[in-house]
Design a protein that fits this description.
23% of the residues lie in helices and 34% in strands. By secondary structure, the protein is α/β, with parallel strands linked by helices. The protein folds into two domains: 2-279, Zn peptidases (Aminopeptidase); 283-360, Beta Barrel (OB fold (Dihydrolipoamide Acetyltransferase, E2P)), CATH 2.40.50.100. The strands form four sheets. It has an eleven-stranded mixed sheet, sandwiched between helices. Strands 10, 15, 17, 20 and 22 form a five-stranded antiparallel sheet that branches. The chain has a four-stranded antiparallel sheet with strand order 19-18-16-21, with no helix packed on it. It is globular. The termini are far apart. The structure holds zinc ion. Zinc ion binds next to loops.
Length: 364
């Protein structure tokens, strides 16, 4: 009985709102600033813009993350679409802008939350990492530190605020938009945890070129949501730094498909991973430079490669061949390094493959 009373109070607490949307009263470029978002608290049938107040810089001012919420006329599911975790990965911003622009609250059931610049610090530096000014400068990969720390460094605090005050209570399904890093290429590809049926369904609704069945990365946005019982996928949209309209267009189609399948919008699903002929692999192998030098990658994204096929060479500053790299497996080229110089550890070629080991059925 005692237990029953406690759980009743907790349910009452969450539905009656200890966590309503909190407005600071400030506006930035005319947009209201919030420190906490609760989509349940917003009036239905409207499209909202917010600036979410994140962690503070060394100069005592704050980082802000632009957010659009489309709260439908009718009740339904809540979808969170995030981008800008890595600051040199920009195709996701274009895809999200197009999706949010297309949504009209009177044609939406449920809510769609679009988060545009999750790591404004990293975006400002056009860098994979969040840069911290303290102690001669330090870096943090934001996609390895969720759910963050309340009393951590700037990046950890930003992660904590994103997780607790912007994302978690507002998401039943999550799409996190990325690209490959600077000087490396992906096609349109999806990392998805195939142990979670809804994650598999979302992945295969994207007309991707390749899908990796993936057990996830600790501390990433996707895996932290999966661990919290919320289906999530990571969509990788081509290469870093550039705008690639064809990949962006297919990403928008895929997100629309997911919204249709969740009943958020009406429409028909046409182009999917299946119609695109996506290659779905359960394992991948990265061939990395073992020394420094000028790199020639001899294969392209999407090529089929055979074990022992020559896939890259490296030369020294005089032009002498110093290293040959062969594919260790049969598979399909998922990623290539496009930077002309590579140092030890730099990616040359990543190959997506079908590992026959039963342990890899849902991804290794
Ligand atoms: Zn990324």
């Amino acid at each position: 009985m005692k237990k029953y009373i406690i759980s009743s109070v907790l349910i009452l607490g969450s539905s009656c709102g200890f966590a309503k949307t909190i407005y600071t009263g400030d506006r930035i470029d005319g947009v209201p600033v919030i420190t906490h978002l609760d989509v349940n608290d917003l009036a239905a049938g409207k499209k909202y813009r917010f600036m979410f107040k994140g962690s503070e810089m060394n100069i005592g001012q704050s980082w802000y993350t632009p957010v659009i919420v489309v709260k439908g006329n009718n009740s339904g599911k809540n979808l969170l679409i995030n981008t800008g975790i890595h600051g040199d990965e920009l195709n996701g911003a274009f895809a999200l802008q197009k999706v949010m622009k297309s949504l009209s609250p009177d044609k939406v059931s449920g809510a769609v939350v679009g988060v545009f610049q999750a790591s404004p610090n990293s975006l400002m530096h056009i860098s994979r990492n969040w840069y911290m000014a303290t102690d001669s400068g330090e870096y943090e990969n934001m996609n390895r530190i969720f759910p963050g720390k309340q009393n951590g460094n700037t990046a950890q605090v930003q992660a904590y605020k994103l997780w607790n005050d912007l994302w978690k209570g507002n998401a039943q399904y999550v799409i996190d938009l990325h690209t490959q890093s600077t000087d490396t290429n992906y096609p349109l590809m999806v990392y998805a945890d195939y142990r979670v049926p809804s994650a598999q369904q979302m992945a295969e609704l994207i007309p991707a070129d390749q899908i990796k069945k993936d057990p996830g990365e600790k501390g990433s946005v996707e895996t932290t949501f999966i661990e919290a019982g919320i289906p999530a996928i990571t969509v990788e949209i081509g290469k870093g730094r550039e705008y690639q309209p064809e990949y962006v267009g297919r990403t928008v189609t895929g997100i629309n498909n997911i919204m249709i399948s969740l009943g958020i919008i009406k429409g028909s699903i046409t182009q999917t991973a299946k119609t695109q002929g996506a290659f779905i692999g359960n394992d991948m192998t990265s061939v990395r430079a073992s020394t420094g030098g000028y790199a020639e990658v001899l294969v392209s994204v999407g090529d089929n490669v055979k074990k022992d096929q020559l896939i890259a060479i490296q030369s020294n500053p005089f032009g002498d061949l110093i290293k040959e790299y062969k594919s260790p497996v049969d598979g399909k080229v998922l990623s290539t390094g496009s930077g002309a110089t590579r140092e030890a550890g730099g990616l040359l070629v990543r190959i997506l493959q079908q590992n026959p080991d039963v342990k890899c059925n849902n991804g290794c």
